[in-house]
Amino acid sequence: MGFSPLSLQNPLVLIIPFFLTLHVNSQTINTNTTLFSCSPNTSASCSTFVLYRTQVEFLDLKQISDLFGVSSLWIKEVNHLPSEEGTLFPDQLIAIPLTCGCTGNRSFANTTYWIKEGDSYYVVSTQAFQGLVDYHFIEDLNPTLDPSNLQPGQDVTVPVYCKCPEKTQLDQGIKYLMTYVWSAEDDISKLSNKTNSSVDSIRAANNYRNFSAAVSHAILIPVKEKPNLPAPLYNTTASSGTDHESSKSNTKAIVLWSIVAAASAVVIWNFLLLAWCKIYRNKLFVRTASNSEAADHLLTPKKSSKNQSLCPLTKGNKLLAGVSQFIDKPAMFDVKDIMEATMNMSRSYWIEGSVYQATINEEVYAVKLAKGDVAEEMHIFQFVNHANLIKLAGFSIHGDGNFLWVYEYAENGSLDKWLFPKTSSSSSSSSDSISCLSWRHRLNIALDVANGLQYLHEHTRPSIVHRAIKSSNILLDAHFKAKISNFSSAKPATMGVRPSADVFDFGVVLLELLSGRKERSSEDAEVGVLWREIRAVLEVEEKKVERLRRWMDPKMKGNLYPMEGAISLAAMAKACTVEDSTERPRISEIVFGLSVLAQSWSTEAWMPSSEESIPIADAVVAR
């Protein structure tokens, strides 16, 4: 599979053939080749560190030390761990000490990796080593092996990115250049604080690169002392043992018990909440005379069922403080505050569906009335935290056991309101502003959604499949940053659902961004109009430019947008919506492609300045 580039003379069109061949060249278009090149002003070798995020397959020190070929004792001492015989918890940052040197003109720390069933060089570099390795360099260092026919048990030399400080850096007191893989949720200020570095030195060490386009790429963090990261959570009761299979079994047990403990915490929390309400409700509620029947209903506890009792709790009350450092417990909101802020769910505060706007303690929220079983959704919200996922600020309990979700407020509402504005006399002014959604905003929205999905698919254990990616579930904040909302259908990937379903839905969103038209619902017998249309549009090479121009959203006619970029995005959408789910790209490949596209079109020459100030229409927060 692949695309033909329109022209190799125009650097902006290099992205066009990327998508269907991305799995073989996704790491070639980056600055790491020069960033990690050897310099005459650099020592021939040095001691350094890479920062590695623990994952399910690599949780005990023996596994991690085998992966990087270093002593587990060194890892223990650098990370201030109490013992070599324990097990780490997932998604924690640890420092790995390495000896760095030059191989040819490249700066690496070489280690040996044993191939497992299903491995490829790409899988080894992006999954086992999390982007600390470029798979092309693995191929270069193992010329006698066939990359397309790797066998379990084969050992390969793996070059891990690293670099020694240059003389000018040593003169500034910099002793180490730590290697770190930049992620979508990273913030350079927070990273500098965590690693005891500085924003300026990080920017300088990375040649002042654009970090928004560095997602999943290795960067350098200059430090003056050995890393002093926050001590990782560590279970010393489960010995890693000397046998690798035994260690793997213990690892899975720890992960299983972590999940069980977290789920139990949710159950216990809700049980204690109900018990606490029952014990103290007579003290907390006083039935007061009121001319308002609705107010009387809200302030009077029901006697027929404990689930109907209203229990006002102060925001921030934590009933199970310290149960688990992995659970980001949402705050408890006083139901009276919510009802006052929405005037008892008045039409004046209604957004749409069962969602209302509420201002509590001078903070604006979106409140959603949720019915039925919300345990799975609550469980997911306690374990996810990403800039491109809508944040659950807290919740409260309404009558009849229903929940009130309290979300962060998205000032610019849902994406579908911008792409498919309703035309009416009362909304003509907002329609005018909505129609101005620019190419840059559309591209950035696509990248934001892809980043959020990558977090769900590849940075949670187990992976989470959203199962409802659509424009109405994509919210836009005041700066048009996109956030995925509505996790009511989300499921762990272990429950018979596949991340490729989200990739298909994401492809449909791309088509809606390009065409400005809404895809038909799954109940429609003619479902799939847009993704079928795009195949015909791109089918004939000589005609695709003119066909795509006619197919694009007519609201963008007045705005300048690059046709090469539109073709690339259309090709991406086509790849995402192929009917064979095994042929769809991985979300990491999508993020990489969109990052390159966003970087390519970042120059002001393509974007008139007037596009940057889009009036905010009446905000509508979806589900």
Explained architecture:
- The protein has 623 residues and is α+β, with helices and mostly antiparallel strands.
- It contains 21 helices and 18 strands.
- The strands form six sheets. Strands 9-13-14-12-11-10 form a six-stranded mixed sheet, with helices on one face. Strands 1-3-4-5 form a four-stranded antiparallel sheet.
- A hairpin with a 5-residue loop joins strand 13 and strand 14 (403-408).
- It is globular and about 70 Å long.
- The model is unreliable at 1-30, 238-249, 275-328, 424-434, 522-526 and 603-623 (pLDDT under 50).
- It holds the Pfam family LysM2_NFP.
Characteristics:
21 helices; 18 strands; single chain; transmembrane; 6-stranded mixed beta sheet; Transferase(Phosphotransferase), domain 1; 623 residues; 4-stranded antiparallel beta sheet; alpha+beta; 15% strand; disordered C terminus; 3 domains; Phosphorylase Kinase, domain 1; disordered N terminus
